[in-house]
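hiii, so i know i said id send this last week but things got crazy w the move. better late than never?? heres the sequnce for the chain we talked about at the cafe, plus the structure i predicted for it. fair warning i was half asleep when i ran it
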Amino acid sequence: MTSQNTLTLTEQIRIADGNGVRVGWRGWAALVVLMLPVLLVSVDNTVLSFALPEIAADLGPTSAQQLWIIDSYPLVLAALLVTMGTLGDRFGRRRMLLIGATGVAVVSALAAFAPAAGWLIAGRAAMGVFGAMLMPSTLSLLRSIFTDREQRRIAIAVWAAMFSAGAALGPIVGGFLLEHFSWGSVFLMAVPVLVPLLVLAPILVPESRDPNPGRIDPKSIVLSVLTMVPIVFAIKEFAVYGWSLQVPALVVIGLAFGALFVRRQLRLREPMLDMRLFARGTFTGALLVNLLSVIALVGFLFFVAQHLQLIVGLSPMEAGFALVPGMAAMIVAGLGIVPIASRVDARIIVPVALAFSVAGYIMVALSATDADLGLLIAAFALLGLGIGAAETVSNDLILSSAPPEKAGAASAVSETAYELGAVLGTAVLGGILTSLFRTGIVLPAGLDATLAGAARETLAGAMTIADRIGGEVGAQLRLAAAHAFDSGVVVTSLVGAGLVVVAAVIAATTLKTTPHRKESDVARGQIGSHTR
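okay and structure toks below
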């Protein structure tokens, strides 16, 4: 049945124009199916921030554990993306997609019933292993299906918009679940999202693999993991506990393994990751724009979710609805930029778009200590407007600037930037905010020493203790915690604005819109690589 479906799809997409091979309706149906794992990852990156207060109240994690609950999944996923991309090239991208979907669904169901913070962190890490099988397949399969440049640009815009749609749906659906069920229900959401993928992917998505895949190199896999884990762990340690000798030691260890990884890739005849891709200025520039944009987005969501629920007093669902205008702006900008991007140089359009995001962060920085709900909604709309447009353009440049035969590697690197951005968004901006909160909170006199230590850990912990003790001391603690948190948001917002400015400068100096090129021969070669 699979070979018949693949042959039918191949016949459907052989409608040639001057630039490549245009797809028919089955190609667009395949796009819909491939968006399901993208939706899942996007939902996961936002819904957990909204569930965090309930998880903190139920499981009682420390501030470090609270960050690891969020970051263990994207950290493991980012560490294994290139590896899983290589395995997908060898064994089939659709096959890896289906294995990953099955694993994520099963582990998510188990994580919903985690009895302690450590178990939840372990479950999230296991989800990262299977999630790494999902994500490299999406862009590489899009590249093999949509060989016409204009259709591919639209498909990439839909791909980026799905991230935004998932981020918008996550808090709303998650908020509904959290108001009616326990926090474990946010993990069970993965099951109904992935079941349709498991049913429809074998029918609509053709199998695709590299006819000449690079060999599996265990040493490269180990080196890539040993590069990322120490560096991100050092960032977390510095953010939560401050400066110590352990921080630079971990950074040096990570950079040393990174140098060994690069050296090995340059020497291998068939490297796991072709480092020559990074010599292309547009490819590297677009990658950095993506990375910094995701850091800014996830970092903003980390503190605004807590502010809306714990300080403003909104329910999780109400907080989710408050962010819908920003997510809608991101989707509209991502799709609306497509016709403009074919006429305006990326060195102009991306910095202009990111200027809106900078304005959003500055709005928060100037009024964080007394920001009302309307201002936060407007600020997030500006942030989403800029990031939505910038990511559509940068993702298209990542794929189109890489050689067609390196599309799989380019996809894996792009996905790695997304997931690493999600890690760093929480670790850097969230870590800075956590550190400022812990050092800035002024606890009321008469508070028990044990309770005082717990109140310093997180905003959620402080608010829980304030509600527990009540009275004048509880009210003072609540005010002190809110003031310390919002004061930290001022600094964090300025850092976020600075990161977006850096992304705009990189875009203005490195990006170059690649001209349309004839890809008919490339398309036929890729179609020929589909399993029949």
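btw The chain has a mean pLDDT of 80. thought thatd interest u
miss u guys!!
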